[in-house]
Amino acid sequence: MGIILRSAGKALPEKILTNDELATIIDTSDEWIKSHTGISERRIAKDDERASDFAVKACEEALKNANNPEKDLGKSSPHKVVRPEDIDLIIVSTATPDFPCLPATACVLQRELGCTNAAAFDLNAACSGFLYAMDVACGLMERHNYKYALVCGAELLSKIVDWQDRGSCILFGDGSGAVLLENEQAVGEKITERGFTSFILGTDGTGVSALYGGEDGKIKMDGRAVYNFAVGIMAKTLMDLMEKENLSVDDVDYFLCHQANERILKAAGKRAKLPEEKIILNLANYGNTSSACIPMTLSSYIKDKRIKPGMTIVFAAFGAGLTWAGAILRT
Ligand code: UT7
Q1: Which residue's C-alpha comes closest to atom 47 of ligand 1?
Q2: Confidence bin at 76 (pLDDT 50/70/90)
Q3: Whose CA is nearest to atom 36 of ligand 1?
Q4: How far is the centre of ligand 1, averaged over its atoms, from the C-alpha of 279 (Å)?
Q5: Architecture of the domain defined by 195-330
Q6: How far is Cα 241 from Cα 276, in angstroms, rounded to an integer?
Q7: Does 258 participate in catalysis according to the annotation?
Q8: 254 and 315 in contact (C-beta within 8 Å)?
Q9: 115 catalytic, yes or no?
C-alpha cells in the first residue's frame, strides 16, 4: 500500500511488419495469423538498434507525463514535479538486453536519463518480467524509503526469433513500456487506498523446455504446451487475486494480461468467468512484446483516458520458465 502509479510511457520501432509481408518469407497467411492469434502487424527494430534505445524513450515519456497534471494519474496536490535526479531506482525487465552479459541495460538508462541518484539493474522473468519487476520495485521502495522508481519492460524479440519457424515467429514484436512509481510515505503524502497491493509470483521449472532460447540463441517453443499452460495459469492467477482481496468482477474495471495471443486471453477470461469487455486486448498492432506489453498498454490506456484515477485493475502474465505473475492496482 502506498506505492502508486504516477504515469507511463511507451516507445516503438518505426518499421511495421504486416502479416502479408511475413507471408512472403514463410508459409503462412494473414487469415491464419489473425484467426489463430489476433495479430495483424508488429514493429521490428533496425539491426543497429538496442533495447535501451526504446527503453530510454519510454522512460522519458513517463517522466514527461508525470510532470503534466493532465497525464499524471497520481494527482498529488500540489502537483509534485519529478526530475531525473529524483529517481531512486531503475529496473529494466528484458530477455534481450543491450549486451550479452555485462553491464545491465538499466545502467545505460541511468546514464542516458541523467538519473544520477538511481540504483539500476535488469531482471529476467521472460514475459512475466514486468510484474516481477513491479513487485521487486515496490518492496525496495518500502525497504529503502525510496521516493520514485522507473520500471521498464524493453524487448527486441525480433533479434532472437527464428524467422524460419512459422509456429513462433508470427507471434513476436519489439517495443518498450515504462511506468513511474511514487512512494506516498517517502514523498510526505498521506497514504491513500491507491497503489499496488497484492502480488502473486510463481515458477514451474519443469517447463523450461516448453519455451527457451536454443544453442543458436533463437526461440524454440512448444506452442500447444505453452497455450494450455497459459490459459490455466492466467485464469487461476486472476481468480486467486480477486479471492485474496475479496473482489467481485463488478469491483474490477479491467483485467490486463500479458498480450500473448487473443485466443489465450479470451479462453482464460472465459475459464475465470470474466466479462469479455473488461479483458484488455492490445496486440493487433504490436504482437507479443513479452514483458513490454503490459506497460505499453498502460501507457496507451492512460493516454486516451480509458484508465483514469479511481479504477481497479487486475493483472496476470505468464512466460518462459515457465513463470507467472499477477498484481492488483488501484489508480
Ligand atoms: O509469451 C508466450 C509466448 N508463447 C505463446 O503465447 C504461444 C502459445 N501458443 C499459441 O499461441 C498457439 O499454439 C500458436 C498460435 C503458436 C499455434 O496455434 P495452434 O492453434 O496451437 O496451432 P498448432 O500448433 O496446433 O498447429 C495447427 C496447424 C499445424 O498444421 P497441421 O499439422 O495441422 O497440418 C501447423 O503446422 O497450423 C499449422 N501452422 C501454421 N499454419 C499457417 C502453425 N503455424 C502456422 C502459421 N501459418 N504461422
Answers
A1: 28
A2: low
A3: 167
A4: 23
A5: 3-Layer(aba) Sandwich (3.40)
A6: 18
A7: yes
A8: no
A9: no
CB neighbour burial string for 109-148, b if at least 16 within 10 angstroms, e if fewer: bbebbebebbbbbbbbbbbbbbbbbbbbbbebbeeeebbb
8 pLDDT higher than 70: yes
Segment 30-69, tens digit of pLDDT: 999 999 999 999 999 999 999 999 999 999 999 999 999 8
By three-state DSSP, how is residue 192 classified? coil
Digit-coded pLDDT (tens) for 101-160: 999 999 999 999 999 999 999 999 999 999 999 999 999 999 999 999 999 999 999 999
Atom number in ligand 1 closest to CA 37 = 15
Please tell us whether the domain made up of 3-183 is placed in CATH 3.40.190.290.
Answer: no
Report the pocket of ligand 1 as residue ranges, CB < 6 Å: 28, 32-33, 36-37, 127, 166-167, 170-171, 221, 223-224, 226-227, 230, 260-261, 288, 319
* 3-183 and 195-330 have identical folds: yes
Instruction: For a ligand 1 pocket test, name from 33, 42, 96, 224 the mutation site with the most ligand atoms within 8 angstroms of its C-beta.
Output: 224
Q: Would you state the pLDDT for residue 192?
A: 87
Helix 105-113 × helix 51-66 angle, to 10°: 50
pLDDT confidence of residue 187: 93
Spell out the domain ranges in the chain.
Answer: 3-183, 195-330
- 191 vs 225 pLDDT, higher one: 225
Q: What is the CA(173)–ligand 1 centre distance, in A?
A: 17
Active site includes 107? Answer: no
| Gap between the Cα atoms of 29 and 65, Å rounded | 39
* Stretch 266-270: mean pLDDT: 97
